[in-house]
Design goal:
The structure holds two protein chains of two kinds.
Chain A lengths: L1 E5 L1 H18 L6 E6 L2 H17 L5 E4 L30 E9 L3 H13 L4 E9 L11 E5 L6 E6 L1 H4 L3 E6 L2
Parallel strand pairs in A: 2-3, 2-4, 4-5, 5-6
Antiparallel strand pairs in A: 1-8, 7-8
Chain B lengths: L15 H14 L17 E6 L5 H12 L3 E6 L11 H9 L5 E6 L4 H8 L3 E7 L5 H15 L6 E5 L6 H12 L3 E5 L15 E3 L2 H5 L4 E4 L4 H4 L6 H8 L3 H4 L7 E3 L12 H4 L6 H19 L5
Helix pairs in contact in B: 1-5, 1-12, 2-12, 3-4, 5-6, 5-12
Classes of the chains: A alpha/beta, B alpha/beta.
Chain lengths: ~180, ~300
């Protein structure tokens, strides 16, 4: 059984709210960069960037980060995840980086993403924005901006489906089996 | 997705799906080499040994850099400074190295089939870094990556491979790989340098270079391997007269055709200097892409259950 926990309008409103929160917390968009984590964070990050750019009336730099090379489990896996391309065509030195992902779960992806970013330079700070925080952290990582707090069971699957990929915006809980 | 074997021994053993997996993975690894800090932690704690029984600059350096950019530990053994000069056999050397628990051993050997022999004996992965006249799979993969990045896709491309086909492991690996990925391959060279029955591998054959180059999308030149011919080779000047890729011959190929060469090049013998350094040459891109392909293979072969 699938249960819809966020529809298109709610997702849109969350992104708008997060955009304003980012600008409030950072007192504007100076030195701001938005980076989406492949694959789930990319479309969200790009929408968030568009929103911030529209509010501030200027282009905010946007990058894509693939964390496969930084995962802590790849050498133990038989079926290797296919790495995607990282695309950060600007310096992140001294910049305020907003990392964006769709679902925050164990925190291991974010750990890998931070290690990856630091190999690209020395950002002034890194903040984390997620659409859904489903709990069950295995590392001491906490989001700065959250669309929806969704306490979930381990046997549930939280899926963020976005228009760019599935033709419809919604967040659903899938029960396994 | 995974590879079906623990080893990479030849293009002949790889399926189109596996080739695609390797090329797609390599595409992502290529970005790492463009960074200021050209290193990712992916293969931390893995050990890779380069066991080279033949001279090599680019392949050995390329494997070493690939391993190091993935944070693996890389060790190079060239046989002139190893126990081989004390009379140790290939099998004993391989068993000795296995006892040191490496994860992957890259072997280059002048005897065709040497990496296959070792691969059957040991637990770790073996990558063929070139064996005799037989195969050089990582070269074919980097050639295919270079073509794909320039042309978008391999399917339907017309490729000429020109030179000493019979003695070229690069040609053999490329014939298997390119035909498998949907390229139409023509091989060309003096009659004694064309292996018997090569048509059975699905390629066209000609001894006329103009015919081989005309309307091709890719022209792949091979090095004349003087060390394998000695007395039988007529003269360099005669060879160059009929088989050197020069401006007039390249003009017969399709506009924007790629000029490739696995290196090292003999300037003026199989390729004119102005063509090797020209606009259509991707010879140095081949070298750059070689690191990405080898990173992809080390990544795909590392760890998991044996």
């Amino acid at each position: 059984m699938n249960k819809v926990v966020m529809d298109g309008e709610e997702i849109e409103r969350s992104i708008t709210r997060i955009a304003y929160e980012i600008l409030e917390k950072n007192r504007g968009a100076d030195a701001l960069i938005v980076i989406g984590i492949r694959t789930g964070g990319v479309f969200l990050a790009s929408r968030l960037r568009d929103k911030i750019s529209a509010i501030e009336k200027r282009e905010i730099p946007f990058g894509i980060l693939d964390v496969t090379f930084y995962r802590d489990d790849v050498t133990k896996m038989d079926n290797k995840p296919k790495p995607g391309r990282t695309d950060i065509p600007f310096s992140i030195d001294g910049k305020k980086v907003v990392l964006v992902d769709d679902v925050l779960f164990t925190g291991r992806t974010i750990r890998a993403a931070m290690d990856a970013l630091i190999d690209f330079g020395r950002p002034k700070l890194i903040q984390l924005a997620v659409l859904v925080d489903r709990g069950h952290r295995e590392l001491p990582i906490w989001p700065d901006y959250t669309g929806l707090d969704l306490p979930s069971s381990l046997w549930e699957n939280v899926k963020v489906q976005l228009f760019e990929r599935t033709g419809k915006d919604q967040v659903v809980i899938e029960e396994e089996g | 997705m995974k590879l079906h074997s623990k080893d990479i021994l030849g293009m002949k053993e790889l399926t189109p799906g596996e080739i695609l997996l390797i090329l797609d993975t390599a595409d992502s690894f290529a970005e790492v080499s463009t960074r200021d800090i050209k290193k990712v932690p992916t293969l931390r704690g893995k050990t890779i040994i380069n066991l080279f029984y033949e001279a090599s600059t680019r392949t050995r350096t390329s494997f070493e850099l690939a391993a190091k950019r993935l944070s693996a530990d890389a060790i190079n053994i060239s046989t002139s400074t190893s126990s081989v000069v004390k009379g140790e056999t290939l099998i004993d050397t391989a068993r000795t190295l296995e006892a040191m628990n490496p994860d992957i051993v890259v072997i280059r050997h002048s005897a065709s089939g040497a990496p296959h022999l070792i691969a059957r004996m040991v637990r770790h992965s073996v990558i063929n870094g070139g064996d005799g006249f037989h195969e050089h799979p990582t070269q074919a993969l980097l050639d295919m990556l270079t073509i794909r990045r320039r042309k978008g896709s391999l399917k339907g491309l017309e490729v000429a491979i020109i030179g000493d086909i019979a003695h070229s492991r690069v040609a053999h690996s490329n014939i298997h790989g390119l035909t498998r990925m949907g390229c139409r391959v023509t091989v060309c060279g003096p009659a004694p340098m064309i292996p018997r029955d090569v048509e059975k591998l699905g390629v066209s054959v000609t001894c006329n270079m103009e015919e081989a180059v005309r309307n091709r999308d890719v022209v792949m030149m091979l090095r004349i391997q003087f060390e394998r011919h000695r007395a039988s080779f007529p003269s360099i000047r005669e060879y160059a007269k009929f088989y050197c890729l020069n401006e007039e011959r390249l003009a017969l190929a399709n506009p924007g055709a790629l000029v490739m060469h696995p290196g090292p090049i003999n300037r003026g013998t199989e390729i004119a200097p102005d063509i090797a350094d020209g606009m259509q040459s991707v010879i140095l891109e081949q070298v750059t892409n070689g690191i990405a392909v080898r990173m992809a293979l080390l990544y795909l072969l590392s760890g998991g259950s044996p």
